[in-house]
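Hi team, as promised in this morning's meeting, here are the two structures we talked about. I've kept the exact order from the run log so nobody has to guess. The first one is mostly here for context; it's the second one we should focus on when we meet again. Sequence first, then the predicted structure tokens.
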Amino acid sequence: MSDTDIAAYLREHPRMMGVLFTLTVLLTQVGSVAATANGSTIS
């Protein structure tokens, strides 16, 4: 898929842009929590 295909798809499905944004935020938070949890268990 090229960038123009993705842009066209998101233009046709605006709710998907919100879903992708939400997933990005959640994955960022999960990664941060996982890094903190991993750092705190090593002694």
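And here is the second protein, the one for discussion:
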Amino acid sequence: MTPIRSLNDTELQVRYAAMQAFIKTGSSSLPDLTTALEPTQDEEMRWRAAATLAWVGDAAAIPAIVRASAGADYALKYNCIWGLGQIGDRAAVPALLEIVQADETESPDIRYNAALSLLRLGDRAYLEGAVDSDNEGTYRVARAALAAAKWL
């Protein structure tokens, strides 16, 4: 098995090969990758682990990804939110809705990414309704995501 630290190697080729190796081993790589999401780990390795989990595509990783995104820095949170949509399981919807509906303390980019992930998971109806939201941030990200998908 590929060492988890390879996700944070100084050489791009090593990092890429490590991601590919974890993706290839699929669900059996979840224990190593979810451990790499822990706050005690290096931030760069954490966001790379989140992205790799997204490509593995196992819904069992959703709780660990949601935990890792809470209070995370931009790169980690962005990759976690993207990953929730990439995995493609509706178990991620509550966490994504929480991000879309957040107040202005949440980055608009993160909120937009969450809205796109909702679209990927089939929650177009929620976003269409959110276009009339009193929360200006929710209105903006819903409208932007729907426009990007050419549904507005």
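Starting points for discussion:
DSSP finds nine helices and no strands in the chain.
The chain has a mean pLDDT of 93.
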